[in-house]
Design brief:
heterodimer, A: about 110 residues, alpha+beta, GMP Synthetase, Chain A, domain 3, three-stranded mixed sheet, 5 strands, about 20% strand, B: about 425 residues, mainly alpha, 13 helices, globular
Chain lengths: ~110, ~425
């Protein structure tokens, strides 16, 4: 899955920033967990993140999205950011990165 | 965007007292059990065993369940809890009611103290039921886990109501049959209607979340729901209309089918999990689910009427109750306490420190090593307790109860470690 436009430095920075957001239950960052589907930036609408949760109604869902908002407003204070939770495609273990797979005991 | 339905600090203040009461009750339970070891030989309808049973079912298990339910309900139903005031009334009604109830049984004061306890408990159960129903109202067609939880709260209310009637019946003798007849109904609707249905409801949602496995098979959960409730209703109708509890074995067998469907659904979820490495809390949870076969076997022997009434059958009945509460319910709560409570406390202390380096994770709030010891010690105590009851050996029961106290101390230390946890502001960068 292509998460961001590699040419765009801001999207790459957002991608790296999101690696600091941890799922508190699993202790794995949301990028390695494969929860982030798309990072998009444009000058007029700001940063837009399309992501999912491992399970609909996940108790940590609020915490994770709050974490994202908090860290984005800290690192990109001049940009507006929106988070869109989507449920298609449904999250699966195939989205987990090789590093995440090791942490989950899948590798 | 998912609505934020969990105002954590507001909820924590309503939820944590339930946990504190439940945790202390567990320690009290094991101490009282030690000083009543000889009560585990003979008939279950004795003052000490009634006191012990109600410390276990209400003071320990139900109070912890109430705590987690008030926290989880908004998440499970995706709607804010209807009333924090109701939650507080539920807590105080139960806390005072349970203390008075246990005192009444222990001292066999069956007059005013028992009636006062009955009034407090039925008030608490009513506020709990109303809070759950009002929270679930207008949430659209409820999911199967919510249906299990709402139904469980209904059965719980009925269990408490029947208990309250029995409490008044000690003085006013208005019920047509003898107390033991109603006690059997009271116990079984409490065990299957309240504990089993609630556990299935909550776990069917939480287990896939904790294991990162696909959602449980809804169709199978519906089968389980209708079979268990069908068995309970048939048992109740047979008892109250036809005055008959001797067909209990048939309804028990039916309920077992419903429970078995749930257990197989859990096993399927376990096998298809993404998260291969299980934490100790989940290991203990699965052990509890596997241990459910013990009360099923002993309960079936006890209720089937295939065996003549004898001192040995009496012991089997006691083992049935002990294996259900200590082996299944307690083991499950001992494990799940370290899945739900760290999360509640973590949200309360750290939700506003999101994304900051140095913020501990929920699992860092307690000692995993202590939890491991607690699990091993508890299982040893539990196995010895069952062996002692079956063999009617008071010495073995005493040893078992001493070991269970050690497990309770380890549990209390670990839980209060979380309660007194101070946010590590200094390490935040």
């Amino acid at each position: 899955m292509e998460l961001y436009t590699k040419a765009d430095n801001i999207e790459l920075n957002v991608y790296n920033t999101l690696k600091e957001v941890i799922d508190p239950e699993l202790a794995i960052n949301i990028i390695d967990l494969g929860l982030v589907y798309k990072i998009h930036y444009d000058h007029s609408s700001g940063i837009h993140i399309q992501m999912t949760l491992s399970n609909k109604g996940c108790p940590m869902g609020d915490v994770i999205t709050e974490n994202i908002r908090s860290i984005l407003s800290e690192r990109f204070p001049n940009f507006k950011s929106t988070i869109e939770l989507i449920w298609e495609p449904i999250w699966s273990s195939e989205f987990v990165s090789p590093h995440g797979r090791t942490l989950l005991g899948l590798a | 965007m998912m609505p934020s339905n969990t105002n954590s600090s507001r909820t924590a203040s309503a939820v944590l007292p339930f946990y504190a009461f439940g945790v202390v009750s567990f320690l009290v339970l094991t101490i009282v059990m030690l000083f009543s070891s000889n009560a585990f030989i003979g008939h279950y309808f004795s003052p000490k065993l009634l006191a012990i049973t109600h410390i276990a079912t209400l003071g320990w298990a139900s109070m912890i369940i109430f705590g987690s339910l008030h926290q989880l309900l908004p998440i499970l139903l995706d709607k804010a809890l209807h009333s924090m005031v109701y939650a507080k009334i539920t807590f105080y009604s139960f806390a005072i009611g349970i203390i008075v109830l246990v005192y009444s049984f222990w001292t066999f004061s069956l007059g005013i103290p028992l009636q006062l306890a009955a009034v407090l408990l039925i008030s608490g159960a009513s506020f709990l039921l109303l809070n759950i129903v009002f929270t679930a109202r207008n949430t659209g067609r409820p999911a199967i886990h919510a249906i299990f939880i709402i139904t469980a709260a209904g059965w719980f209310w009925l269990t408490v109501f029947l208990g309250a009637l029995m409490a008044f019946n000690f003085t006013f003798s208005f019920l047509p049959a003898e107390q033991l007849f109603y006690l059997r109904i009271h116990a079984h609707i409490g065990m299957a209607g309240w504990f089993i249905l609630l556990i299935i409801g909550v776990s069917s949602k939480l287990i896939p979340m904790f294991l990162l496995s696909p959602a449980m098979d809804t169709k199978k959960l519906y089968y389980s729901y209708f079979i268990i409730n069908g068995a309970l209703l048939a048992f109740l109708v047979d008892a109250l209309i036809f005055n008959e509890t001797h067909r209990g074995g048939i309804y028990f067998s039916l309920a077992i089918i419903g429970i078995a469907i749930y257990v197989f659904t859990v096993i399927k979820s376990f096998k298809s999990r993404v998260r291969k490495a299980l934490d100790i809390g989940m290991k203990q949870t699965f052990l509890a689910v596997l241990f459910v076969f013990l009360p099923i076997v002993f309960g079936w022997i006890s209720t089937s009427n295939l065996f003549p009434v004898s001192p040995f059958l009496m012991q089997i009945t006691l083992v049935y109750g002990a294996s259900f509460f200590m082996g299944f319910i307690s083991l499950l709560i001992l494990g799940q306490s370290f899945k739900t409570l760290p999360y509640i406390i973590w949200l309360d202390k750290y939700q506003n420190m999101s994304g900051k380096k140095g913020t501990p994770l929920p699992k860092d709030l307690f000692s995993e090593k202590l939890l491991r010891y607690q699990m091993v010690v508890f299982i040893i105590g539990y196995i010895l307790l069952l062996s002692g009851i079956i063999s009617s050996l008071v010495l073995l029961i005493t040893i078992a109860n001493s070991i269970l106290i050690l497990a309770a101390i380890l549990y209390v230390i670990n839980i209060f470690k979380m309660f007194v946890h101070k946010p590590a502001y200094a390490t935040i960068t």
